[in-house]
Amino acid sequence: MQKRTVVITAMGLVTPVGSSARETFDALVAGRCGIGQHPSLALGRRVGYVDVDISTGEHPAQARQMDRVTLMAQYAATQAIERSGLDAEQQARTGVFYGTGIGGVTTFNDAIEAYHQLIPKRPILVVPAIMPHAATAQIAQRLKSVAEAQTYATACSAGSVAIGEAFRRLRDGYLDVAIAGGAESMLIPSIMAAWEQLRVLSPDPADPDTGNCRPFSRRRAGFALSEGAAMIVLETLDHARARGATPIAEVCGYGVSNDGTHPLRPDPGGQTLAMRRCLDDAGIDPAQVGYVNAHATGTHVGDRIETQAIKQVFGARAGALPVSSIKGAVGHMIGAAGAVEAAVTAMSVQQGIVPPTLFYEAGDAICDLDYVPGRARELPELSVAISNSFGMGGNNSVLAFRRL
Q: What span, in angstroms and rounded, lies between the C-alpha atoms of 81 and 77?
């Protein structure tokens, strides 16, 4: 079967720096940081909080039955569908592909506390609200979709995997249109304590201007936990042209691998393999790649390993290749991270400008690449970029995007 060209025709985002794709991208390019104190919860650390009414448009009774992560996913999906211009018949044929790290953990936590009479019981059906598939089912129901609806829970790579699997379905002829992405919301004290147990969260700095999350920086100390969502509409190029849709960028490659080494420590070999598989899938030579949107969470070991993997893939050219991480600006959105970063990478290719790595400070002898420090960089000749997404447990996902 001949492989078909797959394009992005619409996006919906909600992040700590914006309530839409446009707002988020503009804020990232401007160097805005969305990490701060949670407005209502004493979490002990600064986080990336989405300060948006994500229940807008939902009936109050329906919204009460949905966990915050599902509301966030639905908010982003509604944006994307509205911007896509898909009619009712096309929506019914739209596949839904969604990734999350943990699902409705806020509702789950509340249910446990209510059981032990620590808080009042809520009139909510717990199981349908907490299952990882809840957002997928909700989006598919809203679309009245009779196509497939799939959920992926591959930790921090989940949103990227969802987009990649949707890409394969379209490219290989199973679907003509899909909506794909990820969401995460776990900003509650019990989950913060669980992350602290892993010692991967950055301490709050004495001076907030130095940043909580400092990817690749000499004094990096971990990431800021964050929440958000991104859902993008994918179509075959023929389908988009037939209905007069204007593509944003082409999704041209997808590579996955599994480290097979350690549940917590990433492996450069596995990350290298995912990047090479992505480029092979796209039929792209490493010399054609003009930008890497890095997974880079700001952990001491993780950033070094990703740098090593980039060097293995791009060789002597690695030092001249722009590489940046947006996690200094928005924190780590876990299951949503790969989807948000994929959307940002596609917009970078479309517009010829890449977001900076905030709070970067040189000095790590291993992290010695061009990390686009401090300010966004215009790259008018940028035509191909990749987005890295690496999940705890060793799941690696890489997506490639091409300017049309």
A: 6
Q: Tell me: do 48 and 190 sit in the same domain.
A: yes
| Neighbouring C-alpha atoms within 13 Å toward the C-beta of 55 | 10
Tokens of 242: 């037939």
Same domain for 336 and 268, yes or no, is yes
- Could you list the active site residues? 156, 295, 332
* Neighbouring C-beta atoms of residue 26, cutoff 10 Å: 15
Token match 């490493």: residue? 286
Shared domain check, 142 and 67:
yes
* 267, 131: one domain: no
Cβ atoms 401, 252 nearer than 8 A: yes
Q: In this structure, is residue 391 part of a structural domain?
A: yes
The answer, yes or no, to whether residue 94 has pLDDT greater than 90, is yes
Q: pTM of the entire structure? A: 0.97
Of 303, 130, 271, nearest in space to 200 by CA: 303
Residues 238 and 309 grouped into a single domain: no
Q: Is residue 228 a part of any domain in this protein?
A: yes
What whole-number distance in Å separates Cα of residue 127 and Cα of residue 132? 10
- Domain count along the chain: 2
pLDDT tens-digit map of 54-65: 998 888 888 899
User: What CATH number is given to the structural domain containing 181?
Assistant: 3.40.47.10
Same domain, 162 and 305: no
Is residue 264 domain-shared with residue 217, that is, in the same domain? Answer: no
**Residue 176's beta-bridge partner residues?**
none
DSSP assignment, residue 191?
H
Q: Which residue has the tokens 């804020």?
A: 27
List pLDDT tens digits, range 172-208: 999 999 999 999 999 999 999 999 999 999 998 877 7
Structure tokens at 174: 């199973």
Q: What is the pLDDT of residues 255-296, one digit of tens each?
A: 999 999 988 889 999 999 999 999 999 999 999 999 999 999
pLDDT of res. 156 = 97
Who's near 179: CB < 8 A, 6+ residues apart?
77, 80, 81, 94, 95, 96, 97, 139, 143, 166, 231, 232, 233, 234
258 is in which domain, residue-wise?
254-402
DSSP states of 280-346: HHHT--GGG--EEE----S-HHHHHHHHHHHHHHHGGGGGGSBEE-SHHHH-B-GGGHHHHHHHHHH
